[in-house]
Amino acid sequence: MIARSDTPAEDARNPPPRGENPASTGEAAGTSRPWRPGLVAALVVAAAGALLVGAAPAVGMVTPAQPPAFTPWPLLLVLAALPPGVAAAFLRSDKPGVAAAVLIAPAALAPGRAVLDAQPLADTSGSSVKVSILPHS
Fold first, then answer.
1. Distance of alpha carbon 74 from alpha carbon 131, whole angstroms
2. In principle, which of 16, 33, 69, 136 could form an S-S bond with 20, CB 3.0–4.6 Å?
3. Which helix (H) or strand (E) segment is 106 a member of?
4. DSSP string covering 12-74
């Protein structure tokens, strides 16, 4: 082990050996690195979005209410909750970079998904979400 001083300048000149965890030397025992607030906020927003994606098929889109062709919400909920769940697991294992990388792909696709989700507001008959409605029987 390396002897540490109280001054930051001396600590900068004497970094710990590669692979040595400062917590194992007793310096940071009982402390953990704080999580990045922006990453936690992104994780919360992604989890809330996953719940909304799972709940969306239950709302219905036509009047009078017609049942969907099949029950899509369980599969949608599992697929939407997968990225936030994996990111939360990496964040808990103290890998914030990997957690952020997991959330990048859904975030990049979110604008296009928002446009597709708003399409039925303009014209329900031209909707690309055929599972939600059956225009002609």
1. 14
2. 16
3. helix 96-122
4. HHSPPPTT--GGGGTTTTT--PPPPHHHHHHHHHHHHHHHHHHHHHHH-SSSS----SS--HH
* Exposure of 80 in the CB half-sphere (CA atoms within 13 A): 20
Q: How far apart are CA 50 and CA 38, in angstroms?
A: 18
* Residue showing tokens 């369980």: 74
What string of pLDDT tens digits covers the 137 residues of the chain? Answer: 555 555 555 555 666 566 555 544 444 444 455 668 889 999 999 999 989 888 877 776 666 666 767 778 888 889 999 999 999 999 999 999 999 999 999 999 989 888 877 877 777 666 555 555 555 55
